[in-house]
Amino acid sequence: MNLALFIPEITLLVIAAIVILLDLFIEQKRWLAQVSISGLVIAGGVTIAMWGGSYPAIFNNMLAVDNFAIFFKMLFLGIAFLVILSSTDYVSKFSKFQGEYYALVLLATLGMMLMAATTNLIAIYIALELTSISLYALVGFLKDKKSTEASLKYLLLGAVASAVLLYGMALIFGFTGKTQLGEIAQVIQSLPPMTLLASPGLLLGIVLLVAGFGFKIAAVPFQMWVPDVYEGAPTPITAYLSVASKAAGFAVILRVFFSAFGLPVWLSLNWGLIFAALAAISMTVGNIIAIPQANIKRMLGYSSIAQAGYLMVGLAAMGMASAENILGQSGVLFFLASYAFTNMGAFIAIIAISNKLNSDLIEDYSGMGKRAPLLALALTLCLISLIGMPPAAGFMAKFYIFNAAIQNGLLWLVIIAVINSVVSAYYYLRVVKVMWLGEAASAEKVPSSGALRLALLLCCIGVLLLGVIPGYAIRLAQLAANIFAY
């Protein structure tokens, strides 16, 4: 076993412990953020150095060290970096618990990195629980009525989803006698089709996996936790949930469904159709319910449900595609990278504005273009990207993933997605209209820290670069998705 390949994860674990210990002894709590960021930078440097290498799986083949896992590790580390940077203003709301806050963010990131790398059902479940428990605690950090309610609701519904997922894994293990994804695939491929069709246990297990993972990615009908949790959680954690947790869910789905259930072809076609149906329902429900929302965090909560729908277009394309066609998989990866910059940027701008206004109501953003033109401009760019309009990253992400769907016979799904993108423009542009055309309630400026402005600048640069010159990021996504090519 080569522990050198596990250095990024070990680094996060050690830094999380150091942050908790430092919190006991130092008065200047700003050092906690700096130590956390240093740990993320070290882990990120080691992870980048691994890119493109040919490494064996570690821990008895339970953790893969391939480009797919490395791509997601870089994504999660980058998101955590932005979350901690943007939290420097916000943590004053729970100044006594800053050490625990940063440590939990690091541990949740560690769990997500493991989720992207695991190739064993048991390891997947352990990594998912490490992530989930950290997030349950982070959601309730404000300790007010809304935050406590959000945390409790997330915990209870998450426990149910976890039980459903575990039951699905148990059924699959019961049918195949294996927990390793590759070995499960070998058992399934060795059996005649009639045996598989006559096995409701296996098919039910796959359906339960879809349900359990559907909760993680906030897909309909497993999305009931989203609006209340997004509204009640600290805003940096809402951003973290909307981006990192969703990306981790898709990373696991991609690996599990391709590695274990990619063959026989009829099986992948069937789960591809399931994801196609969930995609159509999720994007439609999310966009329609987002229209009347008055709270910007709830609006973006329903928006994230719709975005999960667009992402599942890529999963459907993956299920329908031939073995050598990886457009669906690489499209999902590029979309997740674009969405990470876009949604993080939107929430970072909201952190700065809401800290000043002490309100998340859209109507209170009136005249923000005059009070804080740069923040309003950044938020406008991110909302345009969420619609899928050029020159922002969202346009290229949707173009890429819709192209994959059309090439694999899912034109009807793309038509539904395009109609939904037009519908979403109404509620996204409503925020833009309020900010730029509304009357400002005050002429007072909106202050923000240098760290928050840096995080917002990085997000905006990412949104523009992925929209205008996406070639390099697309190439990275394709290299990461090459593990799916037979």
Which SSEs are present, and which pair or pack?
Elements: H1 7-25, H2 30-50, H3 67-86, H4 98-117, H5 121-139, H6 145-176, H7 181-190, H8 193-197, H9 200-217, H10 226-232, H11 235-261, H12 265-290, H13 296-320, H14 327-357, H15 368-371, H16 373-387, H17 393-407, H18 411-437, H19 450-468, H20 471-481
Number of strands: 0
User: Which structural category fits the helices and strands?
Assistant: mainly alpha
Number of helices: 20
Give the terminus-to-terminus CA distance.
26 Å
Q: Residue-averaged pLDDT, rounded?
A: 90
Total count of domains: 2
Beta fraction: under 5%
Please estimate the helix content.
over 70%
Morphology call:
globular
Radius of gyration: 21 Å
List the helices and strands in order: HHHHHHHHHHHHHHHHHHHH
* Unreliable residue runs: none
Major sheet, described briefly?
A: none
Textual characterization of the structure:
With about 475 residues, this protein is mainly α. The model has no long low-confidence stretch (mean pLDDT about 90). It has 20 helices and no strands. The chain has 2 domains: about 190 residues, no CATH class; about 220 residues, no CATH class.
